[in-house]
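hey can u check if this looks right to u? its 427 residues, i copy pasted from the old doc so theres a chance i mangled smth
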Amino acid sequence: MQEKEIIKTAQKIEKAGGRLYLVGGAIRDDLLGKKTHDEDYCVTGITAEQFQKIFPEAHIRGKAFEVFDMYGKEFAIARTESKYGVGHKEFEINTSPNITIEQDLARRDITINSIAKDVLTGRIIDPFNGRKDIENKIIKATTKAFKEDPLRVYRVARFSAQLGFKVEEQTIEQMKELKKELDTLSGERVFEELKKALNTPKPSIFFEILKKANVLDIHFKEINDLIGAEQPVQYHPEGDAYNHTMMVLDKSAELTEEYPINRKLEIRFSALVHDLGKGTTPKEQYPHHYGHEERGIKLVEQLGHRVKAPNAWMKCGKTACREHMRGGIFYKMKPAKKVEFIERISKSILGIDGLQIVVISDKTSGGRNYKPDEIDFETLGNECLNKINGEYIQKKYGLKPGIQFGNKLHEERIKYMKNRVLKEENK
């Protein structure tokens, strides 16, 4: 919506005795010098009925709140909320025209999101010093009303990851108090926050904040179980399996920065869950984790179902669990095993490129150095698959697709891999 149209909208609202304010994330992003994706507006001084009469083209959304969609933007009637139940539901809503913009801002989660701008005058309304907190790069709960909505626990952790801001200790304490209500949240709501967190430059911050608030075990039990899972120091100087996983996750974020969003998230989720099996290793076996690859597969399903992750994510995660160790020793495999491996991975949703990112992130965590050839199976794998393909078999043997065709394709790839490996060895 163009600025002129917004001003016209504000003028119509003013004529009816109301006021229009830009609120929330748009103000925060502007103060941070970032482009905003969403513009949300708050209307004071008039009722929902009056708004609908002024703007008959507006569509009311939801039953609980008087929020309108118009011109692709959200226009909400100013409200106060009073919780009388448990969890994310059961709020008493008041949308009286007498509610001020300050009162509406007081119900919001954190101070940096509790700022408004008068559309007509440009005046900034900042009753909770959100601008100062932006300058100081800190996240604070707006009021004690923060504790009325358990979803805010995940929102705070996500904003910390997105912005790189620290979370105030008092707010951490309020998050702790909400632990008993977290299991009332739907998996879908948790997933939305997880998805946004994984799309940040350093997703580990999200989990670190949840860990600090002692709430990691509610929806991310499998991640929490990695805490204290000892690993061989010579291979993992970074510490336990939890610290390792966080480093792998952040490295995968670095390597997928330019990837399309859906692909990026599949790979990052795979990095997050690749070692879940280590959380179930009996302590008497520490620091070794024999069989953790297979044990992790079921845990990916548990976690994925709990947070309502897409099936594609879970399939990618299970592939990462099952195959990441093999990817790490690809250079040691015999040619036949190499071909079996790349053929299998190439058919998975995670793909050769996705698994390689997980393996690179896994192997280089803790500052360990590896020769590129030791962890690069993508180059050789794709070379083999592309050169020895269906067209190659048809031309050489005149076969049509079928069992014999598939067998010959596999055999020729093994031959190619043997020759390729020999060439490398003779250099």
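The chain has 21 helices and eleven strands.
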